[in-house]
Structure formats: structure tokens, C-alpha cells
Design goal:
The chain has 436 residues and is of the alpha/beta class. Helix content is 49%, strand content 9%.
Length: 436
């Protein structure tokens, strides 16, 4: 029987939990150092006491950049088998987190199966599930109804929840004053904004924030403070609404930590490349070094069908500048629910961004795989290259699609391969290209 409710409470008491031991080993970090980071809030280990299949991961300062995969059932796409195929894809390619964004009907069965199956962290947005779960029109939902959904998700074993508590009346006033091109693009944020405007009430997640924290603390659910006013186009980035909400999130972070609830803070959105670094440093400052979770940022608005690329560019800059957790974006972003192939493309783009950032940040052993690839390429060992590659299957398929006459190189350069030429000269051999 453990004598603490949450990882943060244990860390503050000087206890190194089994989850901390696992994460420390994965991150090549001393357990005591990790405990200190968890106690300060600079690292979160989202790990619900009811998620028995989880392989714990840490998110935050000094750790590898983690990625999240979004999936779930919608009214237009409600094939549970397809969504589970996406789950398997995410697990296969090493996503550390999966967010179930289901918003159609009774989602309990899908979420329960997901939690039972997944070693990855599971996140949800209770606001998405509220209308289907409660079977009420938005305007008729009460503050206590919203809390009921939060409790249901916590009991099921969800490890972190996006709670849009920062879009209170003060933040809304800033948003209304500073006109935007895209207004509110956060689904949960728009629903709360509509509820507030229709009922005249304060945001229930803000008004009853202490009640939310008590539920989360009971099950050790990490709160992911949602950015309801994130920019939905590059022209709206770093405006009054975004920054006003961020200031509220900084205060909410400290209130959660006071209750021993672990915190992540969510961030933009769409943002030009030259603004990203400043935003990451601003968030870390205002939110007291809490782990930062970003969607993208997408660095241009004109690439539907290729937004996994615009997101990877922004994500790499963001993570190199301090972000800790990247939410993947697929080629289907802004267009439709992603299929299994889209999910893979999104995962790969996000993993590349995260890995590139870890190299830039000097995360321990981040370069190891790159050095292994260089060694394999140096001796033209194709099997080893495929083994080290982030996507071995695709690498092999490309190589084999146009097989070279000799396997000493690929079909691009053939005998003129620079590696082959240099190796032969250094070995004292003669380089010849023409057959006699």
C-alpha cells in the first residue's frame, strides 16, 4: 500500500517511486535527480493508478522529447477496428502517448479497451465527451455535469486530461478586444466559450478548479492545461488572447502543484518560425518551467495535405527551444479524420522532429543511433542501415524498388558512390568505372 497519492507528492516526500526508477533508467538519469525534477514540477510522469498496462514515461526538463498520437471515434468515422489499428500503429512506432479524442456516442468501451491494451500514456479531453456521455444539449449541461465526466475518465485509467481552465472571463475579454482572423480553433475551447456565452456563467473548470484537482489527485491524473485560445493561423499568434490565457495557465499551474497534481501546459498552434523560440521561453517563464506540450506549431497555413511537414518544422524548433512534448499532425490535418497511413506519416514526422531537437538539446545518448547509422553507411552495410533507420520497412522498400546491379551502393550513384570511391582509395585500391 503506497503512502502517497501522486508522483509529485511522493517526490516532495523524498520517495523514489517504481515509476521514477523506470523513467530514470530510460533517460540515463540518476533517480534522485529525477525525483527532484518531479518534486519541482519540471518533470511530469503521467501514470494513472488504474492504468495497469502502462510503461511509464517522463515529460519535461532534461528528458527526451516525447510525442503524442491523436485518434478516436467521430460521428462520420465510427469504425472501432480502424481506430484500434491506429493504436497498434502508434505503439509499433514508439509513440509515448495516445490521446483518445472520441466525441461520438458512448465512448467508454473504446477507451477502456485502449487503456487495457496500451503501454503508452493515454490522454483525453473530457469536454469532447460531455455531450455524448451526458446526452444533453450543451446549454443544459451544468458545472457538476462536467465534473462527472472528468471523474469517469479518471476512474477508467486516463493518465492525463486536457482541461481548458484558462479561458475564463478575463481571457475572453482580451480575445474579444483583439480581433482575430480565425477566432477560436480549439474544439474544447470553442465549446466552453459557447457555454459561457449562452449561460452567462464563468468557465466551470476555472470556477470549480479545486474540485477538478481533487478528482485528478485521487487517481494521479496529470492535468494538461489546454490552450483554448491558441492561434489557428500564423496571423493570430502571440496576440492578447493567447498571452492572456497563458498568464492564467501560469497561476493554475501553481494551484495544481499545491495540491500535488502534476501539470503540463499546452501551447500553439500556428506560428511563424521567427516567433517560436520566444514563445517557448515565455511559456517556461510564465508557467514556472512546467512541461510544455505543443501542437505543431504549424509554420505556414497554405499546406493542407502536407501539414505533417509544416508541423515537424515548427515542432523541431519548439522542442529545441524548450518544448517537451509534441502532438503529432498528419497529412489529413484540416481535411478529414486521418486513416492508418496518415497516422504513420504523422508519427514519423513528429518522431524526426523530436529526435532532431534532442540532438540539438544535448539529451544524453540522443546521437547514438545517428552514429550507428554513420558507421553502417561508412562500410555500406545495408542490413545494418535498415536496422538503425527510424522506419526500417520503408527504407528497405525504397532500396529494393530499384535494386542496384551491385549491392555496394544504391541505384542513385552506382559505382560512382562517394563512400565506395573514398574507401577504395584509402584501402590502396584502384578506382575503375569502365568495363573492359
Amino acid at each position: 500500500m503506497r503512502n502517497y497519492k501522486t508522483q509529485m507528492e511522493a517526490a516532495k516526500k523524498g520517495i523514489i517511486t517504481p515509476e521514477m526508477e523506470i523513467v530514470a533508467k530510460k533517460e540515463y538519469m540518476e533517480p534522485e535527480k529525477l525525483r527532484e525534477l518531479v518534486a519541482s514540477g519540471a518533470v511530469a510522469i503521467p501514470c494513472n493508478v488504474n492504468h495497469k498496462s502502462i510503461s511509464p514515461e517522463g515529460i519535461g526538463m532534461g528528458l527526451r522529447t516525447k510525442i503524442n498520437v491523436n485518434l478516436g471515434i467521430s460521428g462520420d468515422c465510427k469504425d472501432y477496428e480502424v481506430e484500434m489499428n491506429k493504436v497498434d500503429m502508434a505503439i509499433k512506432y514508439g509513440a509515448e502517448a495516445i490521446m483518445d479524442l472520441s466525441n461520438y456516442g458512448k465512448t467508454h468501451d473504446f477507451r477502456t479497451a485502449l487503456i487495457e491494451r496500451s503501454p503508452a500514456m493515454i490522454g483525453t479531453v473530457p469536454m469532447y465527451d460531455a455531450i455524448g456521455y451526458l446526452e444533453k444539449e450543451l446549454v443544459k449541461i451544468t458545472a457538476q455535469d462536467f465534473l462527472e465526466v472528468v471523474r469517469a475518465h479518471a476512474q477508467e485509467g486516463v493518465d492525463f486530461m486536457t482541461i481548458h481552465a484558462g479561458i475564463n472571463r478575463r481571457a475572453v475579454e482580451s480575445f474579444m478586444r483583439d480581433k482575430r482572423k480565425m477566432n477560436i480553433v480549439s474544439r474544447g475551447g470553442s465549446l466552453l466559450f459557447a457555454w459561457m456565452m449562452m449561460t452567462g456563467n464563468e468557465n466551470p473548470f476555472y470556477e470549480f478548479y479545486d474540485d477538478v484537482l481533487e478528482i485528478l489527485r485521487e487517481y494521479d491524473v496529470t492535468i494538461s492545461l489546454g490552450d483554448a485560445l491558441r492561434p489557428g493561423c500564423i496571423d493570430d499568434s502571440t496576440d492578447a488572447g493567447q498571452i492572456s490565457e497563458l498568464i492564467e495557465l501560469g497561476a493554475l499551474t501553481e494551484r495544481a502543484w499545491a495540491k500535488d497534481v502534476q501539470v503540463m501546459v499546452e501551447g500553439p498552434g500556428h506560428m511563424a518560425m521567427n516567433e517560436i523560440e520566444a514563445n517557448m521561453k515565455l511559456q517556461k517563464r510564465i508557467c514556472h518551467n512546467a512541461p510544455f506540450y505543443v501542437l505543431g506549431p504549424l509554420v505556414t497555413d497554405i499546406a493542407p495535405g502536407y501539414d505533417h511537414i509544416t508541423s515537424a518544422i515548427g515542432g523541431a524548433i519548439a522542442a529545441a527551444s524548450g518544448a517537451d512534448f509534441l502532438c503529432y499532425v498528419t497529412p489529413a490535418e484540416h481535411l478529414r479524420l486521418p486513416d492508418v497511413n496518415d497516422v504513420k506519416e504523422g508519427i514519423m514526422a513528429s518522431k524526426i522532429a523530436a529526435h532532431a531537437a534532442d540532438i540539438a538539446k544535448g539529451v544524453p545518448h540522443a546521437r547514438d543511433k545517428d552514429n550507428e547509422m554513420a558507421a553502417a553507411r561508412h562500410v555500406l552495410d545495408w542490413e545494418e542501415m535498415f536496422k538503425v533507420a527510424i522506419d526500417p520497412e520503408k527504407a528497405r522498400a525504397y532500396f529494393e524498388s530499384t535494386p542496384p546491379a551491385e549491392r555496394h551502393s544504391c541505384s542513385m550513384c552506382g559505382k560512382m558512390c562517394a563512400v565506395r570511391t573514398t574507401n577504395m582509395i584509402l584501402e590502396g585500391k584502384t578506382v575503375e568505372f569502365c568495363d573492359e
